[in-house]
Amino acid sequence: MRKWLALCTFLVAGALAACGGGGGGTAGGGAVNPPAPTPAPVGNLPLQEAVGGSMAWVDPSTHHTLYFLDVDTATGGTCTGQCLTIWPVFAPSANAAANGNMTIITRSDGTGKQWAYQAHPLYTFTGDSGADQANGDNFPDFGGHWHVARPAASSSTPAPGSSSPPCSGVYC
What single string gives the DSSP state of each residue in 85-135? Predict the structure, then answer.
């Protein structure tokens, strides 16, 4: 019986050693390649997240929904003054870079830079207090209607003057 127990112990120890169990090495002495790190985002490029059941563009730092005003210009010229206290500009960080249909515009009112999606300047809404809220969607204000900015492949952000097929990439 003792010989049988010793043999079993020897076989189990050998199996564990062959599988690399209990140690930090690998069988055969090969190096372990750690998983590649996820690249850090450059600047504050908007993210796609589910808002109200479908994909929308959100601010990556707060996860608040991004909006556009249907009568706004490609240089952010319609929402100015009092409008900006309710609908703050979604401004790019210092190290932000445009990517696909996400561009950085210079506002025509001289207040700085702003993110735009398919030439629509992007804003947040002070009526949203957290992620996954879209309280400003279809809100009539400042001469037009506000809409959730949605990736072209998933819905309603119109591409001004465009008849091209919808975009299907993350930042298109």
Answer: HHS-B-PPPTT---BTTEEEEE-TTSS-EEEEETTEE-B--TT--STT--T
- Res 167: pLDDT: 43
Show the domain range for 68: 47-148
Q: Tell me how far apart the alpha carbons of residues 46 and 123 are, in angstroms, rounded to a whole number.
A: 11
In a domain, 61, yes or no: yes
Tell whether pTM > 0.70. Answer: no
Amino acid at 105: I
Task: Please give the residue that has the higher pLDDT: either 118 or 20.
Answer: 118
- Three-state SS at 34: coil
Structural domains in the chain (count) = 1
Q: What share of the chain is helix, strand, coil (3-state, %, to 5)?
A: 15, 20, 65
Query: What is the distance, to the nearest Å, from the Cα of residue 21 to the centroid of all Cα atoms in its chain?
Result: 39
**CA 99 from centroid of its chain's CA atoms:** 12
Answer whether residue 30 is part of any domain: no
pLDDT at 127 over 70: yes
CA nearest 51: which of 117, 158, 160, 124? 124
Query: How much is the CA Rg of the chain, to the nearest whole Å?
Result: 26
The Cα 2–Cα 83 span in angstroms is: 86
